[in-house]
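Hi U.,

Before I forget, here's the chain from the pilot set. I'm dumping it here mostly so it's searchable later in email.
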Amino acid sequence: MRRSHAKGTSDAIKSGIRDALSALKPLLHFETARIELVEFDDVTGVAVVRLAGDCPDCDLTTAMLREGIEAHLRTKIPEIREIRVI
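Structure:
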């Protein structure tokens, strides 16, 4: 019923988040780092994103990086209400 429609919508949102994160990687010069979606809760709008590896050219604090990721994702995916970076 409605659950399967929500599942399809949730999958589309997750795919959009993954695409937006992939687009961020070259902008942030993440040659040796990974940025990936861990989970997205379509009820709360919370996306959990993992940053792994290092970013030798980054002068950004974790908070600044999180804010930049959140701003980018929110412009691309309006369903996102909050980003948690782990």
